[in-house]
Amino acid sequence: MAEIEARVGARGFSSFVDTAAERYLALLKAQEIVEDFERRNGPVPAEETDAAERAWRGEQPDTCRPATPA
Question: Which of 5, 26, 59, 63 makes a 20 to 30 Å CA pair with 20?
Fold first, then answer.
């Protein structure tokens, strides 16, 4: 708690906590979506998980690389 106040000030604490709670709820909902998908379709293939992780990091997917000059 003290670290949050040190970063955002006492007046920003409530806003920080509200934002953190919203993000956490969004992550929980996303996890529920993945779990539902896997119940219906089986595990997500590793190559799809890898592509999603690359996209999360802002990396271009292999299929979107610019063409190399001939």
Answer: 59
Euclidean distance between the first and the last CA atom of the chain, given in angstroms as a whole number = 58
The pLDDT tens digits of the residues spanning 12-40 come to 999 999 999 999 999 999 999 999 999 99
- Taking the C-alpha atoms of residue 16 and residue 6, their distance in angstroms, rounded to an integer, is 12
47: its two tokens: 């190559």
**C-alpha–C-alpha distance, residues 44 and 38, integer Å:** 7
Residue that is written with structure tokens 């670290």 in the block: 3
pTM of the predicted model, to two decimals? 0.62
pLDDT tens, residue by residue, 51-63: 989 998 998 766 6
